[in-house]
Amino acid sequence: MTAQKVLTMGDLQQDTPVRVEVDGVPIAVVLDSNGDVHAIGDTCTHGDISLSDGFVEGDTLECWAHGSAFSLRTGRPLNLPAYEPVPVYEVTIDGDDVLIDPAVTKVVN
């Protein structure tokens, strides 16, 4: 699989998650306050809740339902009740296009 265009930079607003689906994989895309674009799995690992309906603060995305915050860089939950990470996807910016390959996840230590 190759990276696919999911949005343009103009579709993103700072600290506002956007839900996209690539080949059936739900992904939350976030433009953070530093201007970095992140892509993480859109489903909270604590419950079947869309993270793109949540809140961005710094480099975290918080699930609106139970308050688990996930690192946008690593996918790791930073507090309970979630204890399993969400996948983090490589993002490529090509001009104004935002591309993601859902088959390629970042390995973050």
TrEMBL record:
Tree of life domain: Bacteria
Domain Rieske: 4-100
Keyword Oxidoreductase among record annotations: yes
Pfam families: Rieske
InterPro entries in the record: Rieske_2Fe-2S, Rieske_2Fe-2S_sf
Keywords: 2Fe-2S, Dioxygenase, Iron, Iron-sulfur, Metal-binding, Oxidoreductase
Gene Ontology MF annotations: 2 iron, 2 sulfur cluster binding; dioxygenase activity; metal ion binding; monooxygenase activity; oxidoreductase activity, acting on paired donors, with incorporation or reduction of molecular oxygen
PANTHER family attached to this UniProt entry: 3-PHENYLPROPIONATE_CINNAMIC ACID DIOXYGENASE FERREDOXIN SUBUNIT, FERREDOXIN-RELATED
Name listed for the protein in its UniProt record: 3-phenylpropionate/trans-cinnamate dioxygenase ferredoxin subunit
Species this chain originates from: Microbacterium saccharophilum
